[in-house]
Amino acid sequence: MKTINFLIISVTLTLVTVGCGSKAPAGGPEPTDYDAIRGFNYTPAVVASPRHHVDSWVRYDENVTNFDLDLARGLNLNQARVFINYPAYEELGDELAVRLQHFVRAAHERGIGVMPVVGNGPWVRDTTLREQGRQWVEFLVNTLGDEPGLAMWDVMNEPDYSSRNDSVRRVQYYDNCRFMSGLFHELDPVTPVTIGMAGVDGMIELAEWVDVLQFHDYSPTREEIANTIERAKEFAAGVGKPLINGEIGCIARANPYDVTLEEHMKAGVGWYIWELMIVRDGWGSVHGVFYEDGTVRDPSIAAAIMGYFRNRDNILLEVPDREGAVTRAVAGIERWIGEADPDWERGLDLAETAANLMESSQTVAMITPPTWEVARLRKGGADIPALKTLLERYARTMTPFVTPK
């Protein structure tokens, strides 16, 4: 698809030995405890740029990084997948090393391991430039290779997806994966190597070049999600390599976080959500947990990350009018609307009461939260016609939930 440990998990983790070895503990699960990975892709929400995977380093802000990683720690997340694009190195040179080290060390202090995605560059389509690729890998290994917070190298993102309709590009991208994987194994034989494949088929095609198998999945039904996981697990077991899912969760692909997370947790497969932050000039309209100020758009996502899922079986419907609150709210709104000179503040209080009733009882869609609508009116000047229109809509929405006398 795209081209990103809170409180430490209190479980006993079983180590999986990989041929390339492992680093010292990063404060949370060891890099080889792949089933225990609870990860996130990361781009800072404040980077308003179409080339955010470059500008997130060019405009790097340590305070933003620290704040965002604290949010991750608060959800018990323990791994970060972050893109380090070659153009950032071309612009920053050795200064990039300082920024990368801050990020990995700040993550490590919070029990979060880091998996950089690093594989694109001009050498992909022009193999005569592969010396640049070697220099890039040497820079990365010299910068991060000894950092205890470094968990894995992800040598390219979704070469199978990016080249799905172009056979020439497919050959170039797959050759680059083999080239980069070979370089990382040569220059850093300790840190595991993976490739962020968009699907299980691609994962299988390049399996011999990685230490950790990785697939991405945005399937729209539980059955498809479960079947994809099972197929990936069967292959991983057959070749004796650990398995992770590097990208899950997309509302635009009918892949709700609380559904796909539940299926991966049940299957015991480590995962990385796309993505931690709601990046406004990026994938924020269909992905993300936190706004830049630390608030959330959908609390069910945060709950699912913590392992708490919506009941879709034996539910008990809310009864918002059990104590007559809806009846009183509708009646109060109707009286206010009928007044010749209605009071602005009292009308806002009626609107806020209605908004709280609707939101807490889940009787209204939350794509535009009613409390947000009321807050906007409170911040503006007295606009009686706008408030009247809002209250009329709220009364219509709540009337079906009035308990008959």
- What helical percentage do the residues reach? 40-55%
Strand tally: 8
CATH architecture of the largest domain: Alpha-Beta Barrel
Instruction: Work out the strand percent.
Output: 5-15%
Question: Over all CA atoms, what is the radius of gyration?
Answer: 25 Å
Order of helices and strands, N to C? EHHEHHEHEHHEHEHEHEHHHHH
Describe the structure.
The structure is a single chain. This protein has 405 residues and is of the alpha/beta class. It folds into two domains: 34-305, TIM Barrel; 325-401, no CATH class. It has 15 helices and eight strands. It has helices at 52-58, 62-74, 86-92, 95-109, 130-144, 159-162, 167-187, 200-205, 222-239, 257-267, 299-305, 325-338, 344-360, 370-379, 384-398, and strands at residues 38-42, 79-83, 113-117, 153-157, 193-196, 213-216, 243-248, 270-273. The strands form two sheets. The chain has a six-stranded parallel sheet with strand order 3-2-1-8-7-6. A two-stranded parallel sheet has the order 4-5. Mean pLDDT is 92; it is low at 1-22 and 24-31.
Which keywords apply here?
405 residues, 2 domains, alpha/beta, disordered N terminus, two-stranded parallel sheet, single chain, 44% helix, 8 strands, elongated
Give a short overview.
The protein is of the alpha/beta class.
Structural topology:
Layout: E1 38-42, H1 52-58, H2 62-74, E2 79-83, H3 86-92, H4 95-109, E3 113-117, H5 130-144, E4 153-157, H6 159-162, H7 167-187, E5 193-196, H8 200-205, E6 213-216, H9 222-239, E7 243-248, H10 257-267, E8 270-273, H11 299-305, H12 325-338, H13 344-360, H14 370-379, H15 384-398
Parallel strand pairs: 1-2, 1-8, 2-3, 4-5, 6-7, 7-8
Helix pairs in contact: 1-3, 2-4, 4-5, 5-7, 9-10, 10-11, 12-13, 12-15, 13-14, 13-15
